[in-house]
Design brief:
Helices cover 25% and strands 43% of the residues. It has 2 helices and 5 strands; from the N terminus they run βαββαββ. β2 and β3 form a beta hairpin. The chain is globular, with a radius of gyration of 12 Å.
């Protein structure tokens, strides 16, 4: 399987609702690496690296996010592959 890294910018009601926590859980559940981080403008940045199929499944999950959130927009772009230690929340 091809290994890729994707960067996602998630907009909407995604801060203060546990979005990073649930994204971290979903990333670890899939065995991919990366992080979820709040941005100053109210968005959440997600870096996800691993098998292409698994990263794509996280992409699909991010379109809705956890029940406590409202995702209005999701932008994605492929970035250079980088090995991360697990999937974590960044501050």
């Amino acid at each position: 399987m091809a290994k890729i890294c994707m960067k996602f910018i998630v907009s909407g009601v995604v801060q203060g609702v546990g979005f990073r926590y649930y994204t971290c859980h979903e990333g670890n559940k899939r065995g991919i690496t990366g992080y979820a981080k709040n941005l100053n403008n109210g968005d959440v940045e997600v870096i996800a690296c691993g098998d292409e199929v698994l990263v794509e499944s996280l992409h699909e999950w991010l379109k809705k996010g956890p029940r406590s959130s409202v995702v209005n927009n999701l932008v994605s772009e492929q970035v250079e592959f980088k090995a991360h230690q697990g999937f974590r929340i960044e501050y």
